[in-house]
Amino acid sequence: MQRRLWRSVGQLERLRPSFFSMTYGALGSAQEVSIENAIAMHRDSPVAVAAHLTCSGATRVQIDDVVRQFYDAGIRRIVALRGDAASSETTSISGYGSVVELIESLVGFGDIDVSVAAYPEVHPEARSASADMRHLRRKLDAGAQRAITQYFFDADCFLRFRDRAQRIGIDKPIIPGILPVHDLDRVRLFSERCGATVPGSYDKLFAAVNNDPEAQYRLALELAVELCERLIREGVDSFHFYTLNQTDMCLDISMALGASLQKPELTTAA
Questions:
Q1: I want to staple 179 with a disulfide (CB 3.0 to 4.6 A). Which of 8, 151, 201, 212 is the partner?
Q2: How far is CA 39 from CA 25, 66, 71, 137, 171, in A?
Q3: pTM of the full predicted structure?
Q4: Residue 263 DSSP symbol
């Protein structure tokens, strides 16, 4: 997995992205690996790193220590998330009571660029779409610079969400999350957990090319490009790709949208 990660980094550097986001293991060895990889990516890649950071299941001291590790290493971008609690026990006494408190702490820490999560189809645990939108505004008002959405497959879903955000006064960037369908069954499993809707039409489309990996790839590529092109026509100028360490489709989507690749020999370490 480490080798695969670094191959992905090397390939995706050629797109000159604004940043790589690095997911975060909340506990134990998974956390250590996340921190080490984020710091190594920052050190060895010319692309900035946005390190994910969750506040559930940990004390303020523990979380602040991780922030200090990132900060001392030179990482100035954080994706602030609530995360899943490690147990039913609350951490509100010794930990951050909410992601809003975490954002406020990060902003007070120094020159840290904070991104937060947004849910076009509503967070599975939200009381309502309105409550979820108000929570997003609180996170942005606390000092976050932008929101990155959960992935979706219906452009209208994102556009309606963006319109509702504007109506309640949100004027910071909302970056759509795009997940190429490398494996439809796996995507369905992810989607059940996060509340994303996989279009019913995908079953028939992918079933028609079930025994042809190349045709499956072309179909997934066409669907992702079509989604992005529709969003571009509606004024979207940035995308956040969920690559899952698989670079080919992300590269092909980007090139189809007009990206030019930086030549590998011109890529230098930061």
A1: 151
A2: 14, 11, 10, 30, 31
A3: 0.90
A4: P
